[in-house]
Amino acid sequence: MRRPASMKGLEDLGRLRLSENFFLRDFLHSEIADFYRIPNIPDDPDLAVEAGRRLCEELLEPLQKTFGRLHIRSGYRSAEVNAFGNRNGLNCSSNASTAADHIWDLRDFDGCMGATACIVVPWLIDNHRHEGDWQKLAWWVHDHLPYASLWFFPKLWAFNIQWHERPRRVIQSYVAPRGMLTKPGMANWSGDHSAFYEGFPALKS
Fold this sequence. Notes:
single chain; alpha+beta; 6-stranded mixed β-sheet; 7 helices; 14% strand
């Protein structure tokens, strides 16, 4: 599939269905792209769609079926948009670091594909508002879904959730307690964490 060279082509690309409830267009919005007028269009649509489908089917669909509708804060970021954001201090890491992450159509150093979306789970902010409650959802995801990495943020407890061919299964946060919640090798990484999210709904597939 070629990179769209017209509005009609981009429209058709956005109609591609990634999973039962998600289409590619859901992930193409970018404030950086909109404000600075940089097209946020995949250079390699086939790779973007393939990685995006895995993200949606394996992570976002189970989350939405279990907790209700998700709010997509951001998803796909083109290499051009990401590089601009990195150069101008707009909370974008380098393209090399963002490959197989927000840049869905760029493989990482190891040749692996991946995809990330930043999402909000309204159910969480409606039902668990105390400081540190974001950890309940973090542990629920850790125990139930094949995520690669999670990064939690202060506003609305939004978080980046990544699918990757070689998942590291690392959880980090900019919210208190800030830093590394878990990673392979830490004592809390394995085992059952259900005590942290008592009362949460069972996984719906």
